[in-house]
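Quick one: structure for this chain?
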Amino acid sequence: MNIELIPEFRDIKENPENLGNPVMRGILAGCLFDGSPEGIDKVIERYRANNSQNLYCWAENGEITGVCGFEAHPGYVEVLHIAVAESRRGRGIGGKMLSELRKRYGMALEAETDDDAVGFYRKCGFKTAAFSKYNTRRYKCVLPAPKTLYISDLDGTLLNKNAELSEYTINTLSKLNAKGVDFSLATARTAETVLSILGNTVVNIPIILMNGVLIYDIRKKRYLKKELIEKDKIRQIISAMRKTEITGLMYSIPDGRLITYYENLDNRALRDFVEERQRKYNKQFVQTDNFEDTGTEIIYFCFLDTDDNVHRLYDEIKDIDGLRIEMYRDIYYDNDNVWNLEIFSESASKYTAVQFLRENYGFERIVGFGDGLNDIPLFEACDECYAVLNAKTELKEKAAAVIGTNNEDGVAKWLEENVL
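Got it. Here's what it folds into:
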């Protein structure tokens, strides 16, 4: 019977008593010049006394099978010690520890070693260079930083309360681009509004639009990926609209051109939405008498209405197979009674869109930022994720940490402190 191993890379120093663990000490002895009890004590004491040095263990189903000591420096992580239990060698545990370390810190790894261990580092992908030290041949081993993508939601996250990029955030994004850092966006907005918001600010990786329905390459000015709603699902959505007497917006993308249709603007929230985008972003909307007779390649429906109306419509469509539905309170209204309901193909999400970017652009590590419930799929696709202070509680619980609010340039400040 195969037993599933549950690996864990955890901090030994988190509980000082762990530094005396005999299994951990025995494994650590395997990579020390002096593996005597006294020699182990000296190394353990250095880790205990130096807060900048970390000691982690690799555990499988609670059993410690590997030990790794390291110190983070600006731009790289120095591997001080690494060892695997003798009975578990040859199973890739040492490589897994280094891979996890590189992913967590997002930086290059460096180590110094001897003839006996240099083969291990080479096998793990390190570049090695020999040098002489104390009349002994030693090797400097370097593994470049993982290719990393930083990706942020817009509204409530990167944008301030006025739905704009602050000067501080614009300057930070410009620095990222100048440094060659890969950055992208994952938003519910369309290309037209995003491009207007960005202005001259460069985003060097294709962006995720409409909650993952579209992926758009800004530089090439074309859509790389689109997810259509099936025709029978469209008919069912329109039938639910007629039954509840609620209308909204329908998005179509024939021949790579995004067209937004409406039948009527019969509530204030919907009128405000359209008027703002016409005024601020020069976005075009097309009036039609009947959605059923309009458009091809339908990708998206959007409704803005009162809490009661949105939930009535939701109740009518929630059991339609093949759809993904996002429903949330509008953050730009002081009145809590204005809600958004967005409908699109179940094959579209920020998760699948992030995976597309990972696979097609070779990203080994992805770091995400968000604020709303529709960012949960984004967080699930990322290796590391951060919620702004104004984020929903459910999202904060999934975050590695909570950073400053969108009005405090939380994302930009995190990038300044941790990337630039």
